[in-house]
Amino acid sequence: MDEPIYLNHAGTSWPTPTCVSDAVVDAMRSHPAEWPSRFERAHAAVCRFFGVADSEQLLLTPGCTSSLVTAIASVDLPAGSRVLTSCWEHHAVYGPLQKLTEKGVAVDVVPASDESPMDLDALEQSLAAGEVGLVAVTAACNVTGDLLPIEAIIELAHRYDAMVLIDAAQIVGWVDLQLDELGADMVAFGGHKGLQAPWGIGGLYVAASARLKCATAQCSIIGRSIPDKNAGASGQQWGSRPGYCDVGSVDQFSLAGLAASLDRLGDTTRLHDLEVAREQARRLRETLSRNERVTLFGIEDGDRRLPTIAFAVADETSDQSAERLRQHGLIVGSGLQCSPVSHEALRTSETGLVRISAAVRQPESEIVIANERLAVFCSGSC
Ligand SMILES: Cc1ncc(COP(=O)(O)O)c(C=O)c1O
């Protein structure tokens, strides 16, 4: 068979761009005496890309899951307080939130409406009911690619004095994220999806507005800017925000790869790449829609979705469809995509969904071939 085409970039990107793998090898071969300055330069590059003026506000982590776990553990949520979330969360958000319930924190899911993956009226009502310490939401559903209205969510949550944590795993690389301007209190992301960086590197942005207790800190070393009010009963001071004590050493070889991948994407807006990919996704979706055995999921309007396509084929599981697609030379995602709650909301828990997701700047020639293969798949027993 001809080369398979990889279309599971919402899971992880592949292949690694050459400039990225070259940067990793170069970092691995560099002398350890250079590592601190290399770290500073790469960290500064990540901050520049994400519009973060104070590099102390952007903690490098092993990935988005690690960032989310650290963020959620660091929020001061007493028993009786509430956390709001969406019905589209990856288990990297849902899991740590479930743990909070063991400490007497209520986790309430704000439903979707017919118009939006988060019903903003329901969100406001839930905020108005009081005691909400945190709103933790994904910026996009990783199954369907549907975008959540994060700006409106941030604005509403702040009106009711609740902090906001955004899981940006799916949108980085696709959407311009200027974190100082966004207004979220915390934003978590990873490098290995849209940014096409290696595994093992991600980030947690912590705005000055975030009120944290830094619950997971392993050491009591005082960083700069720790106010006296954080002095504990013993008189010992603890950090008011998570630091490298909490997430461990940074994988600086992956960091070198991340810096190279950001350099590759450049300073220009992400909008052009997103528009190209949306047009590519529109064609693939159209091919699928011609077959009556295929049911497409996600918001109809492609401008309100990432270029992700989620679908089911009648009378087979998503794993069976994905296997047949593999035989047609297409590598796609299937199953529950680590987001069982999304599948509950979509009523697809039994079969899962097939997910096709292109890369930022996937060559047009690959999309053309992928579409031909999809057409053959659809014209067969599909
Ligand atoms: C929405 C979402 N959140 C979190 C994660 C976890 O990311 P990481 O693999 O960087 O830990 C993923 C990865 O699938 C995701 O899609």
Automatic annotation (TrEMBL):
Q: EC number(s)?
A: 2.8.1.7
UniProt domain Aminotransferase class V: residue ranges: 30-367
Instruction: Decide whether keyword Phosphoprotein is in the record.
Output: no
Q: Which keywords are on file for this protein?
A: Pyridoxal phosphate, Transferase
Q: Which GO terms describe its molecular function?
A: cysteine desulfurase activity
Q: Which domain of life is it from?
A: Bacteria
User: Could you tell me which Pfam families the record lists for this protein?
Assistant: Aminotran_5
Q: Which Gene3D superfamilies match?
A: Aspartate Aminotransferase, domain 1, Type I PLP-dependent aspartate aminotransferase-like (Major domain)
User: Is Transferase given among the entry's keywords?
Assistant: yes
Fetch the PANTHER family from UniProt: CYSTEINE DESULFURASE, ISOPENICILLIN N EPIMERASE
User: What is the protein named?
Assistant: Cysteine desulfurase
